[in-house]
Please model this.
Amino acid sequence: MFTPAATYLITGGLGGIGLAVAHWMVAQGARHLVLLGRRGITSDEQAQAVAALQDMGAQVYIGHADVANADEVQAVLTHIDQTMPPLRGILHAAGVPGSGILLTIDQQQFVAAMESKIAGTWILHDLTRECPLDFFVLFSSMAAVVGASGQGGYPAANAFLDSFAQYVGSRACPHRALTGACGTT
Ligand SMILES: NC(=O)c1ccc[n+]([C@@H]2O[C@H](COP(=O)([O-])OP(=O)(O)OC[C@H]3O[C@@H](n4cnc5c(N)ncnc54)[C@H](OP(=O)(O)O)[C@@H]3O)[C@@H](O)[C@H]2O)c1
Model:
């Protein structure tokens, strides 16, 4: 399913789902992974999970970047370009849960839940437009459909992901160099 001759970028790659997906990808043949987050490895559990990926034969690069910061994301993409096999897939799993109900949160809280998903998605899309990706997977949530108690910004951010996937998959977005699929999970 995954080629050892490619690099795959997982934003939020050191989070719970990111590490689980990384493990699955390496078991399926991926050999070059970039796990992107703002803080890098901060726990023994993460360090052990990364070591396990390396023991399975994977090259793992920890990309330090806020996915909502285009310059920081570009720096990670440049590192891939200069030192790793071609980027062929993106899994955008960076996210911040919760933000309180809309009646009580302030702008800062609302933006915190939105920026990794909305700005982050657009930045990843924009900076890799010319890159022939096999897939661009966005980790949305059923909260986008049914809501989530006390989390005003989070469902809205995920609803953006769902709409973005439809946009990229449609003729309205002719500039996305996807060879495979774009969708949410
Ligand atoms: N867990 C669930 O049950 C569930 C259900 C539905 C959907 N999802 C979605 O699945 C994704 C992963 O969930 P998870 O449970 O694995 O979450 P998690 O364990 O909290 O991991 C999220 C990761 O995202 C990174 N992150 C957050 N903001 C970022 C930013 N601006 N730039 C770069 N990295 C950022 C965090 O690292 P840093 O703080 O170091 O940046 C963290 O490692 C999320 O998008 C979530 O909405 C999860």
Summary: The chain has a mean pLDDT of 92. Strands lie at 7-11, 32-37, 59-64, 87-92, 133-138, 178-184. The first strand starts at residue 7 and ends at 11.
